[in-house]
Amino acid sequence: MAPADSSWWQTAVVYQVYIRSFADGNGDGVGDVAGLRSRLPYLAQLGVDAIWINPWYPSPMADAGYDVADYREIEPAYGTLAEAQALIAEAHELGIRVLLDIVPNHTSDQHAWFQAAAADEPGARERYHFRSGRGPDGSLPPNNWQSVFGGPAWTQLADGQWYLHLFAPGQPDLNWDNPEVRTEFEDILAFWFDRGVDGFRIDVAHGMVKGDGLPDTADPDDAAQSLVQSREGHPAWDQDGVHEIYRGWRTVAQRYEPERIFIAEAWVPSNERLARYLRSDELHTAFQFDFLRAPWRAEVLRTVVDDAISAAATVGAPPTWVLSNHDVTRTVTRFSRSQPGHLIETDWERGRWADEDPDHVIGRRRARAAALVQLALPGTAYVYQGEELALEEVEDLPDEVRQDPTWVQSGFTDVGRDGCRIPLPWRATDIPYGFTADSAAVTWLPQPGHWAEHSVEAQDGDAESTLNLYRRALGLRAQLWRDAGDLKWLSTPSGVVAFERGAAQCWVNTGDSEVPLPESASVMLASAPGVLSALPPDTAVWLRSR
Ligand code: NOJ
After folding, report:
1. What is the number of the ligand 1 atom nearest to the C-alpha of 417?
2. C-alpha dist (Å) from residue 444 to 16, 385, 391, 423
3. What average pLDDT does the structure give for the chain?
4. Which of 101, 391, 407, 538 could disulfide-pair with 386, CB 3.0 to 4.6 Å?
């Protein structure tokens, strides 16, 4: 790692560590800091530039850690602050930068501030959104907003007041009009930057500022849509006032050398709206979620890539590519069913669409090809843990083990996100596949019985495995693509997209028939074995001019 290199984030490959499910060092069946430390060499060998760790703060786990009780400590089940600092130092020694997850839209209901608010201590309710209810006796919620997880976005306390929570009742929304809230979060950022953290992923970065007076939304149905769908005009999301917060955060980041960085999780209706978060005095990068929602169709892929690049270019920001994360169906499964002609919505993925049986063989072929497209594009790329193993979504979890609040809050109609959060298989043994230090431990979500073949150990020794494809791709990316500049589309037969950057080309075939590859270039890497002069369906290839 070159610490002085302040532009590292513009081309970085960042690995997302979902800490509960990455590796368990103390044998309790839940991933932790010790487990992550023990696997840092794995990540260094994979070749990533940085890791982003999902929330690791003390939490009652109403939403898997996105309900934070103390922003300056480590969840006891995950370890201690001293271990966290050791992890940051060890990662840096291996050349891996460390990004944390900041959750500024809401705290846990167990956070000291909310406890004070619940006890109605003077001024404490002003840090949240408390209101009287509607109706003659105040027994109706103050407005018609729905929680992202289902049900009303308001909960009533015993004294009759209601508080706002856009997510679970255990995640009360903070009032960002209160200057105390702003000061506190700038201080939390500095707390972690002082401990060597290189940046933050910002949770629900489009959510903190609410429309004046918390007005009803015009279309209450659109409030109930999943996080992934855009909500144009909803007063809870993407309000212009949020940008002022980020101008303040940027000045905090600029106090450090090299400058610390931010990546926004902002589900907004258009790339133009997203680019507003990336103006030069605001955030550095933002996930380009249309790429994650794109079906396996050449024409949609090309449009999504074009739109993202041109919108980011208007503000001079690098586009940021992501194929999946801990909130959406895993890539293999997304690509293992028939593909629509439009962007995929997660509600749809988890609902009606799941009636179709998945073909994981095709899903894996496509996921491997998609990875080569992602890693050849200009800008930065995020890899969600288990993508490098081509793990599929676990869609047959028994209802009684489900943990995602979506399941309960949706009235048991939406199974939620547990299926993409299953503990990783490390060893080619029986369950728990080396995930935990104690082989008799019960993992916090059960693993499927057939994952030995997808384990790190099984894939390590197989030259054709997805793990080794990722390792080769990340090595070659530095040579072929990292500094290759702008993208130029090549003309291709229908069902195929291809682009050139510098001396390298990336071709991907989403169609049904094989297509010839240009004779003037040689194959550097292919997502399937045996690709030389023609590109089979569901395959991608990296070429270099001869
Ligand atoms: C987005 C996070 O990625 C998701 O897991 C969480 O449930 C919500 N924000 C609420 O914090």
Report:
1. 5
2. 19, 17, 18, 8
3. 94
4. 391
